[in-house]
């Protein structure tokens, strides 16, 4: 990964030397790893940011052809100008730098598109601690940022929906309680009702619900209370027939209902019935909801001579129920969008009840864990899969987060349930308190980072192996060159003496390069 326009020929010579000194396999291994590494990698070999080596993965990220190798970064990628000063400062200081979710404008056919990357810069130094190269690796994290943004937006929207839902639900419960109280009082009043007209008038006028008595086949209003009048404001009711006072209901199924009540003695009840009724006489009709009771009123001879009508307007309660239904639909939609986002980003979500350790999770987490059981996975089962070398530390981090109400971030290994494969997991979470209910919850996300961890280990092993394997033949070569230089020191041929001096200088330069590998 340290090839450059100056160092590339030298590295090829090193590979050639090692191949001659061993089995000839190492050179192909080195080139294959350098050229086919899945990590986007390039090497700057001068303070002017010459690109000495760039692999295919980095070319794809930058949308550049292979011909950029050997050129200066500012010559073929001027859109990356914000990074020029950073890289030159790194060259001068010789310090490592790690950037997380760093934005960079990438040129796609003349259009600059902002992408986000995790970037690592590692200067390579010689024995004199002078920088001779900077190794840069990058990983595109657009999907990660998108998933975070989706999660944040959905959580805010979900909270707002839940808040509205709670408010509407409280209103509905309050309305239902009032209706229950009214019905209880009404039943008690009806059970005590006598044929005494005076008692009847007092009962109707004092009833908490809207009550009216309509007499005769024309359903003439004889008495009604203020609550009933408030349902039909701006109308004179006493002495008028029902369909005269409420003309909008004439010709509706209610005519047959009242006919059956009066002529057949059949009581009727309607709950949350939609009625197109004007707020005042002669006004435009609007949709209103009522709960009605129509009871036959009989005289002393047992003959029906009127209808007792109880009416309660429940428009606000019905609208509240409709709002709750809409909010539930919206909440379900938010949850579907959240599930889609986490599935696309391959993010498992989990929630732990702090006291009982009850575990909830999505399908992505079950797939990552390889869990295929018919029963839901428990917290104990999940922890049981963690490798012994990580379990105690992981439990300690979880307990600290729950006790202190803070953040949780863990990197650990565990076995998959279905195939026993050992995987690396990155799990993050937070303990939070619900603003409405006050309940404490511990929730977060988990991602399979096995590939990233294995690639990092392979990269480190490769650098160490290459550096050590090159050092042995180089030491032998250096000894031979020094002996040859001593023997040719008294040679009368000045060209031979100069050639040996150059050979000595080159072997020292190669030694510094290898030591640079070892110091990474």
UniProtKB/TrEMBL annotation:
<keyword id="KW-0175">Coiled coil</keyword>
<dbReference type="InterPro" id="IPR013656">
    <property type="entry name" value="PAS_4"/>
</dbReference>
<dbReference type="InterPro" id="IPR000700">
    <property type="entry name" value="PAS-assoc_C"/>
</dbReference>
<keyword id="KW-0597">Phosphoprotein</keyword>
<dbReference type="InterPro" id="IPR035965">
    <property type="entry name" value="PAS-like_dom_sf"/>
</dbReference>
<keyword id="KW-0808">Transferase</keyword>
<feature type="coiled-coil region">
    <location>
        <begin position="317"/>
        <end position="344"/>
    </location>
</feature>
<dbReference type="GO" id="GO:0000155">
    <property type="term" value="F:phosphorelay sensor kinase activity"/>
</dbReference>
<dbReference type="InterPro" id="IPR000014">
    <property type="entry name" value="PAS"/>
</dbReference>
<dbReference type="Pfam" id="PF00512">
    <property type="entry name" value="HisKA"/>
</dbReference>
<feature type="domain" description="PAC">
    <location>
        <begin position="408"/>
        <end position="461"/>
    </location>
</feature>
<dbReference type="InterPro" id="IPR036097">
    <property type="entry name" value="HisK_dim/P_sf"/>
</dbReference>
<dbReference type="InterPro" id="IPR052162">
    <property type="entry name" value="Sensor_kinase/Photoreceptor"/>
</dbReference>
<dbReference type="InterPro" id="IPR003661">
    <property type="entry name" value="HisK_dim/P_dom"/>
</dbReference>
<feature type="coiled-coil region">
    <location>
        <begin position="165"/>
        <end position="196"/>
    </location>
</feature>
<keyword id="KW-0418">Kinase</keyword>
<protein>
    <recommendedName>
        <fullName>histidine kinase</fullName>
        <ecNumber>2.7.13.3</ecNumber>
    </recommendedName>
</protein>
<dbReference type="Pfam" id="PF08448">
    <property type="entry name" value="PAS_4"/>
</dbReference>
